[in-house]
Amino acid sequence: MAKPENIGDAEFKASVLDSDQPVLVDFWADWCGPCKMIAPVVEELADEYEGKFGFAKVDVDANPQTAMEFGIRSIPALLLFKDGKVAEQVIGAVPKAVLKQKIDKVLQDS
Predict the structure, then answer these.
(1) For residue range 4-47, what is the model confidence (pLDDT) as tens digits?
(2) Active-site residue 32, yes or no?
(3) Which domains does the chain have, with CATH numbers?
(4) Per the residue annotation, which of 25, 32, 72, 78 is the catalytic one?
């Protein structure tokens, strides 16, 4: 079972920006209710897209530098990176279908 990788400021470049496949990054915090609601959805998608799309989680409280760099003001914020750049983004807890649509769009644009 694929699980989103917990990464911090130090690993972000290597894990996300330098990745040879697109990566969805879930910016979250422990105290955030909607973040807890979307976490299982992100885990399901990590399974479904294993090998095609990477999945990572960044705790904004523990890693403020990365959150600030990408202008994260509200969470959950899901940024989809491709070739080291933000290709799509979703703010807030959204239905799984919305995330699948964004992931598929990034994959199609490959």
Answers:
(1) 999 999 999 999 999 999 999 999 999 999 999 999 999 999 99
(2) yes
(3) 5-108 (3.40.30.10)
(4) 32
